[in-house]
Write a structure and sequence with these properties.
With 193 residues, this protein is of the alpha/beta class. The protein is built from six helices and nine strands; from the N terminus they run ααβαβαββαβαββββ. The structure holds S-adenosylmethionine (SAM).
């Protein structure tokens, strides 16, 4: 791939389901301290953007295993991983994560799917002690249900955040914040084993 910097690579990839934005991916990696060598489980792969972002961070000694239950999206995500040149670090696994997580001693699990509470018990078994489970959902009701399931399963709530980034418009006649754009993406909840 001619472009080596991740934002340039991501711009050229195919899009299927709604992708996670770079601002939200950045918050996830910052607050979990994601680093080279980490083992990360992700679901669902969707277009593979978050998996690719994280694969770029954990290489060369770590890896990302991303679960996707729809064969068409698994194929799309795999194509994007190959285009990004990260196939050695990101594995797209065609499997419903609500049926179980095969990996153990996982550092971070990311859930960008509608019912993350269904993957909490599996996550508890897969995570290493002090590992992070992160959910990304659009509504407060989903946050509450996920946090409540985590509490029942013995995971400690660390924080729930929304990441708002407001761009500035630079004009000759004046500089001011952008007045249109995406106003809401998702709430990000961090819990810890
Ligand atoms: C919003 S997309 C994820 C986007 C992805 N994070 C990205 O940045 O490109 C949600 C994906 O989760 C998948 N999904 C939903 N439930 C799932 C499950 N139980 N196991 C695996 N994948 C699931 C959907 O098929 C869809 O592709």
């Amino acid at each position: 791939m001619e472009d080596k910097r991740l934002p340039d690579v991501l711009k050229k990839l195919a899009r299927g389901p709604q992708i996670i934005t770079l601002k939200d991916a950045a918050i996830i990696s910052a607050f979990t301290g994601m680093s080279p060598g980490d083992i990360v489980v992700d679901a669902g792969s969707g277009s593979g953007f978050l998996a690719i972002y994280m694969g770029n961070l954990v290489r060369p000694s770590g890896k990302v295993i991303s679960y996707e239950r729809r064969p068409d999206f698994a194929k799309l995500a795999q194509g994007n991983v190959n285009k990004a040149g990260l196939e050695g670090y990101v594995t797209i696994k065609e499997k419903d994560i609500y049926e179980g997580i095969d990996e153990h001693d996982v550092d971070v699990i990311t859930l960008d799917l509608p019912e993350p509470w269904n993957a909490v018990e599996h996550s508890v078994r897969a995570l290493k002690d002090r590992g992070f489970l992160v959910s990304y959902v659009p509504t407060v009701e989903q946050v509450r249900r996920f946090a409540s399931q985590c509490e029942k399963s013995g995971l400690k709530h660390v924080k729930t955040v929304e990441c708002c980034v407001r761009e500035m418009v630079l004009h000759e006649r004046g500089t001011r914040p952008q007045i249109k754009g995406i106003m809401h993406t998702g709430y990000i909840t961090f819990v810890r084993k």
